[in-house]
Write a structure and sequence with these properties.
Blueprint: E1 5-8, H1 12-23, E2 28-32, H2 34-38, E3 43-44, E4 47-51, E5 65-68, H3 78-88, E6 96-97, E7 102-103, E8 108-109, E9 114-115, E10 120-121, E11 126-127, E12 132-133, E13 138-139, E14 144-145, E15 150-151, E16 156-157, E17 162-163, E18 168-169, E19 174-175, E20 180-181, E21 186-187, E22 192-193, E23 202-203
Parallel strand pairs: 1-2, 1-5, 2-4, 6-9, 7-10, 8-11, 9-12, 10-13, 11-14, 12-15, 13-16, 14-17, 15-18, 16-19, 17-20, 18-21, 19-22, 21-23
Antiparallel strand pairs: 3-4
């Protein structure tokens, strides 16, 4: 029998993670969220509120699993901070794959990876720890994605794309085959990357030209 899961966070992404945990019938202990505790809220979406982050330590690392319910945006590092903090203390994060995701042969998912609804991961894709592959994202063959990344909904990576650690790829962004994104690179929503993006660089989709009234 699998260990019970403690969900970290009670925001928007945590709702989606909770739904996934319920779909796969994972046993749940409760939710950890400082805001809920400070407001005196005892229950959230049917789960008991177990307290704030430090209250995780009341539960021995060999008796529970953790699910990272924190979302991820550029410059907001709480998701990776909590992962590193609790890993250092011996806790294990559950790796999650939504039942509707398509996972091909040879795919490797490290600890704490989350593959959400409708994703497609083709042959020999490798995903490192605590990376979030969000709703409807598609990765073709031989793509590699580093640790603590967020591929937002509807991202498309063509074959053999290499994404470094701590990268953020915005919704509906696209990377053509063979490109490399350096550590901490940010790809804006709706943008198409045709070349390598160096470490720490940001690439945003060009704004459309303002429409002008056509005089007859």
């Amino acid at each position: 029998m699998s260990l019970p899961v403690i969900l970290l966070g009670a925001g928007g992404h945590a709702k989606v993670v909770l739904n996934l945990l319920q779909l796969i019938k994972s046993p749940l202990s409760g939710v950890i969220d400082p805001k809920l505790k400070h407001k005196g809220i005892k229950e959230w979406r049917g789960l008991p509120v177990l307290g704030e982050d430090s209250d995780v330590y009341k539960y021995p690392p060999n008796k529970v699993l953790l699910a990272n319910g924190l979302g991820s945006l550029p410059g907001k590092n709480l998701r990776q901070t909590l992962f590193k903090q609790f890993k250092k203390s011996g806790y294990t994060f559950i790796t999650l794959v939504h039942p509707t995701a398509i996972i091909a042969d040879g795919v490797e998912l490290a600890e704490g990876v989350q593959v959400m609804a409708g994703c497609i991961l083709q042959t020999d894709v490798l995903i490192d720890e605590n990376t979030l592959i969000n709703t409807g994202t598609q990765l073709d063959h031989d793509c590699k994605v580093g640790k603590h990344c967020h591929l937002a909904p509807a991202v498309v990576l063509s074959g053999n794309v290499n994404v470094g650690n701590y990268c953020h790829l915005g919704p509906a962004s696209c990377v053509v085959q063979g490109c490399h994104l350096g550590q901490g690179a940010v790809l804006g929503a709706g943008s198409t990357l045709l070349y390598d993006l160096p470490e720490g660089h940001k690439y945003l989709a060009a704004k459309p030209q303002q429409a002008t009234k056509h005089s007859q």
